[in-house]
Amino acid sequence: MILMMLAVMIGCAAMEQATTVATVVGEATGTISRQQGESIRRSTKAVAKSLEDFTPEQEYYIGRTVGAVVLTKYRPLNDDRANTYLNTMGQTLARVSDMPELFAGYHFLVLDSDDINAFATPGGHVFITRGLIRCCRTEDELAAVVAHEIGHIQLKHGMSAIKKARRTEALSVLVREGAKSFGTNEIAQLSDAFGGVITDITNTMINNGYSRSYEYQADAAALSIMKRLNYNPHALIDMLGVMAKQIKPGGTDFAKTHPSPQKRIAALKNNVQSAGETETPDVRKSRFTKAMGHLL
Amino acid sequence: MFRHRFLIICLVLLGVFLLNTVADAQKSMTVQVQEGQLRATPSHFGKITAKIFYGDGVTVLEEKGDWKRVSVADGKGQGWLHGSALTSKRTILKAGRSQAGTSVSQDEIALAGKGFSEEVEKEYRKSNANLDYAWINRMETIRISPRQMENFIEDGRLVLRGEGGRP
User: B136 vs A67: CB contact, 8 Å cut-off?
Assistant: First the structure.
């Protein structure tokens, strides 16, 4: 009764602490036995732990391996000029996103492929293909692409691809009572659980695509990130217009994993003012051409 | 007799609840980025006053939008940082790091050092030799300084209208 009242009063977060206090008091006053108290404490702790998420450090390690899987499908473009420009722009955009701080920050890389594709791992690794860069005629249009990927990270779309059963499985190894230092067996179990998590994320990200609503959410996030730096938000629509002409139906890239550019444009129309007011200044056009022109 | 005990329990619990509320007002939080910078102003481009590391405990002194002015628990300094670098969860604490200013059980510390870590990645790579981490490592070394970002904004005639959600 007391426990229930307390739970309602102070919420789930403090449940474990409240239970500990309540059981200690209960034991001291003799209303419950020491054994009962211990049992309540243990089960509450297990529940509290199972509700917890992966830590940012774990997201980082998940992200590294998701990135390594992406790189089995696509070759990186070893081009300092393009990658430095992409990182300068990307890290500046990330600073104004809702999640400017990640465990190990944001990092960007161009992929040497004609596919129209991009990936963002939970660890902050963002990959963009040459094919997608070719859909961009200005810096503002490339900023729209990059901001969309940052949107996926800030909305934790990658982590949400992990199946619930897998999450429980992974966390149960982590919270096993008394596992103060993990032996070879536990490391092997954790490695299996890790593999499962990677499969869930890469299957969704590379093969099946996120739900359509996630893509629209990432587009909306991209708009707000762009506005905070005074980029022309209409550039997202312009880029999608070019993509609509270049995308090959039946392809295994954005053609398969994203809503059609036309549908994305339709969803954006109400949120974006006409282009005229905020044209891309020449200075941005010229530095874009200088850094990316040879890839177009 | 039973009623008397019941009353004592209720009073003690109420007291604990009120104490918790007072403690919450001081807001102890934990750093959840590998390495972060405290700054003189609430901006990513403010002057760096101190460095903080994953698992460091901080006390929140002041808030401005999504930015928080904090002091590091072991007196290393104080300054502003973005709220996304902090968590109110305690279990992310890492073994071997400074735990000053926070009280965590051995279980929590032990748990925090575990999980999907470098050790697990190493184990996973043994059975997935086709994965190449060389470029992952390489892209992680690409650093852009605040000065480079400021120049990028200025040269490109961009305007910093707000950082990290709200200005």
Answer: yes
Q: Do A100 and B82 touch (CB under 8 A)?
A: yes
Looking at residue B80, the DSSP 8-state letter turns out to be: E
Percent pLDDT > 70 in chain B is 68
The residue behind tokens 């056009």 is A285
**Complex ipTM:** 0.79
Closest B-chain CA to A69? B131
Specify the DSSP element, H or E, that contains B46: none
Taking CA atoms, what residue in B is nearest to A104?
A: B34
Cβ contact, residue pair B33, A101, below 8 Å: yes
Confidence of residue A188 (pLDDT cuts 50, 70, 90): confident
Residue among A50, A156, A71, A60 at smallest CA distance from B116: A60
CATH of the structural domain B2-158, one choice from 3.40.47.10, 2.30.30.40, 3.90.1150.10, 3.40.50.10420: 2.30.30.40
Question: B84–A61: do the CB atoms touch at under 8 Å?
Answer: no
Global pTM value: 0.80
Q: Which amino acid does the sequence have at A152?
A: H
Instruction: Look up residue A33 and give its two tokens.
Output: 């036995």
Nearest-angstrom CA–CA distance, A109 and A123: 14
- List of chain B residues with pLDDT < 50: 21-24, 92-111, 113, 165-167
- Nearest Cα of chain A lies from the Cα of B165 at a distance, in angstroms, of 5
Q: pLDDT value at position A54? A: 81
Backbone angle region of A213, left / alpha / beta, with phi > 0 → left and psi within -120 to 50 → alpha: alpha
